[in-house]
């Protein structure tokens, strides 16, 4: 019980530290939020470029992509780059020398990433709602939120895999996580159906949890698909999470062991 | 039981920038058969030129590195197989005060106390007590670390380590680069904590007077090996013609410790 409380405090400390950093970098946070909102609006405006019926649905289709990508990319970025920030700040040895389980540290990082991603996405959602008159009468927003919540788990798993690389090399690791994020953006059908991709890329898209998330959220919002019809996707995403999160944690522990053996767990930059 | 036991410890590194796929260069040896036992409550000094293996040894004891060969035990716990138990007993202050520089001392210490599972309010009270004792102005506690001098940052680093009341304190050049007054403050505080809760301390330093003042025994390390290990007085008598630790160090290593410290600072 005492041990659980201690681990809980530690996970809370990681979250609290990150929120303190947001306060200290508030200017940058506002700039990022503004850019995200403008970017989403710009993408939404593409839906208005072609006149005629269905403009509202096109705007909504694109806006869903922008919103989801905003959330999932922030989640992936925050989890995968947590180690990179620690290396650049020079605190990695202190954080990793603390008497807590690594899973506790990562739990704090992931919980922060989910909350932070939600806040950033809500801001974009507000901007979209104020800017466009999107048709939401038929939307099943509860179902969309359920799919989004389920998709967080496999994305945390992917983020844990992403976090391995900055542990082994700060700069190259950060470069690699950007490349992974770019590939997910390309193949997951964020702004278009995956059927427009070349066949070989469509095969890659099957491995991205974002592909299934986007299809299900669009079904829920654009066609009002009920929760019962979304359940297979939700279960699929949870299943992917059940595989990816423990696999990510295991891979992280193997990488940490390698870093301890080779002396790579130290300050960079 | 010993605070630390090192048995025939070896450690080598591949040169920086070399990937596992291009293993052409020779590994560089950092530690070559280090063995020593440090009794509980002792202040054990490690003196050596830059690159002699001091920090590698500290990082091995801190569970931040794994030895290629040999054993390291902290209060009987093997650092390789029981790192969590070891981490509960230790804390480390390194030569560079490593913090989130945008955060204040208070925020950094809140983070540290949370990681160690301490009660936030109690930890804040204790942190403030330690920082004031070390001579950090009260108004600085809420200022971002980036606005503090190196000496002030190092005091916060010491407060962070002492916050958890570690049984074993690993001090890797804690006073390097500090002004004389800050240095005296830190040294006096180390003496005080030894007296107050009988912590065991490993102290890496280039400051011979500091080692003479604080350490019960001193090991001189060169090329990853301990080339001498004894009390400061005995080392001075045996290798320095009774002229102090500095003379002994010069004789044994051929290096001037003051130049080493300037390079580190």
Structure notes:
The complex is a heterodimer of chains A (269) and B (265). Chain A has 269 residues and is mainly α. Chain A has one domain (2-262). Chain A has helices at 2-24, 26-46, 55-89, 92-96, 102-131, 141-168, 170-187, 199-205, 209-222, 227-262. In chain A, helix 2 runs antiparallel to helix 3 (55-89) and helix 2 (26-46) packs across helix 5. The radius of gyration of chain A is 19 Å and the shape is globular. The mean pLDDT of chain A is 91. In chain B, a hairpin with a 2-residue loop joins strand 4 and strand 5 (77-78). Chain B has helices at 54-61, 83-89, 105-115, 120-133, 150-163, 180-197, 208-214, 232-239, 245-253, 257-264; strands spanning 2-13, 28-39, 43-47, 69-74, 77-78, 90-93, 168-172, 200-204, 217-222, 225-230. Chain B is α/β, with parallel strands linked by helices. In chain B, the strands form two sheets. Chain B has a six-stranded mixed β-sheet, with helices on both faces. A four-stranded antiparallel β-sheet of chain B has the order 2-1-4-5, with helices on one face. In chain B, helix 3 (105-115) packs across helix 4 and helix 4 (120-133) packs across helix 5 (150-163). The longest helix of chain B has 18 residues, at 180-197. Chain B is built from ten helices and ten strands. The radius of gyration of chain B is 19 Å and the shape is globular. At the A-B interface, helix 1, helix 4 and helix 10 of A face helix 2, strand 6 and helix 3 of B.
Q: What number of structural domains do the residues of chain A give?
A: 1
Integer count of domains of chain B: 1
Number of helices of chain B: 10
Which blocks of ≥5 consecutive residues of chain A have pLDDT under 50?
A: none
Kindly provide the radius of gyration of chain A, computed on alpha-carbon positions and rounded to a whole number of angstroms. 19 Å
Main sheet characteristics of chain A: none
Largest interface: A-B, 34 and 35 residues
List the strand order in the largest sheet of chain B.
Answer: 6-7-8-3-9-10
Low-confidence stretches of chain B: none
Q: Proportion of β residues of chain B?
A: 15-25%
Biggest sheet features of chain B:
6 strands, mixed
Number of strands of chain A: 0
Q: Report, as a whole number of angstroms, the end-to-end distance of chain B.
A: 36 Å
CATH class of chain B: Alpha Beta
Arithmetic mean of pLDDT of chain A: 91
The oligomerization state is heterodimer
What is the CATH superfamily classification of chain B? P-loop containing nucleotide triphosphate hydrolases
Q: Provide the CATH topology of chain B.
A: Rossmann fold
Q: What structural class is derived from the secondary structure elements of chain B?
A: alpha/beta
Helicity range of chain B: 25-40%
- Summing up helix and strand content along with how strands pair, one would put the structural category of chain A as mainly alpha
